[in-house]
Amino acid sequence: MSARSILVVDDEANIRQLLTDYLHRDGFDVEEAVSGEQALDALARRVPDLIILDVRLPGIDGFETLRRIRKTSDVYVLMLTARSEESDTLIGLEVGADDYVSKPFSPREVVARVRTLLRRRGGIAPADDRREFVGLSLDTTRHEIFADGATVMLTALEFDLLDALTSAPGRVFTRRQLIERVWGWDFYGDERIVDVHIRKLRSAIFDAADDPRFIATVRGVGYKFIGVQQ
After folding, report:
1. In the listed set 120, 145, 165, which residue is the last one of a domain according to the structure?
2. Is 125 within a domain?
3. Quick one: pLDDT at residue 123?
């Protein structure tokens, strides 16, 4: 079986080298890029299994690079953000990042986050491969979603989140339970990552937080799926 491929995008040579060394040591195939433009060129040639993308890049920054990536690909993206800039984290998640690590970071932590995300891909598909609700259809085998008859484009992680919620309609999931099911039990980032992805998921399936058809907030606890089954 071929090694999983990682694209590391950072304009600092020492950071690229550090991450490349640790990822190679863990058995990954690594390609490097020093700018957003180089990253997009690399993506056009070959889609990696995951991209490690720095926010602060020369030319087009990491946010704009990610926006362009999301127009054509649901590849997993782990963003590197400045610890002093909390807004970077929230913007990155809104734009389409799957996870983030703040600088300065431990390279072991980055590798652990990479492995956690990649475990989502290639997992066992649930036996219940098609779920039908009024206004929403989900096919877990083909990774297809239709809301009000329109095709919905989600990132792989957002799809996994919707998959988890629709697997047990009416059940209340805490943020920690959703993190363990979608990100993995060993994820130790901020639980607010769930809220950001729920917000994006609602927007994609034409749901409204103040008058939900599909995903309801249970204050102080988490979320539940309230769609009506057909």
Report:
1. 120
2. no
3. 43
pLDDT confidence of residue 24: 94
- Mean pLDDT over 96-124 rounds to 80
pLDDT higher than threshold 80 for residue 113: yes
Domain that holds residue 47: 5-120
Is it true that the peptide bond before 104 is cis, omega within 30 degrees of 0?
yes
Domain count, the chain: 2
Same domain? 27 vs 51: yes
Side-by-side strand order, sheet with 99-103: 29-33, 5-9, 50-54, 76-82, 99-103
Residue 62 C-beta-side C-alpha neighbours within 13 Å:
28
CB 196 within 8 A of CB 175: no
Encoded amino acid at 229, one letter? Q
pLDDT of residue 124: 37
E-strand ranges in the chain read 5-9, 29-33, 50-54, 76-82, 99-103, 130-133, 136-139, 144-147, 150-151, 172-174, 215-218, 222-225
